[in-house]
Task: inverse folding
């Protein structure tokens, strides 16, 4: 389900947990590291965010 959302080359929104708090990040898919189990997103300001796959609650 996560990979299906990442296949589309458009702006996505990810809701995830960080330090016990629910966070929202909006950006374009940058990279996926299966060995580290991390997803990397690039936002509108070209800043790259790393998100743990286990902390993701929803992608749309």
Result:
């Amino acid at each position: 389900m996560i990979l299906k959302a990442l296949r589309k080359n458009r702006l996505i929104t990810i809701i995830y947990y960080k330090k016990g708090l629910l966070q929202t990040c909006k950006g374009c898919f940058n990279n996926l590291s299966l060995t580290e189990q991390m997803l990397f997103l690039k936002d509108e300001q070209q800043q790259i965010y790393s998100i743990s796959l286990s902390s993701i609650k929803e992608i749309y």
Remarks:
- Strands lie at 12-18, 21-33, 38-42, 48-52, 56-59.
- The longest strand covers residues 21-33.
- DSSP finds one helix and five strands in the chain.
- The radius of gyration is 11 Å.
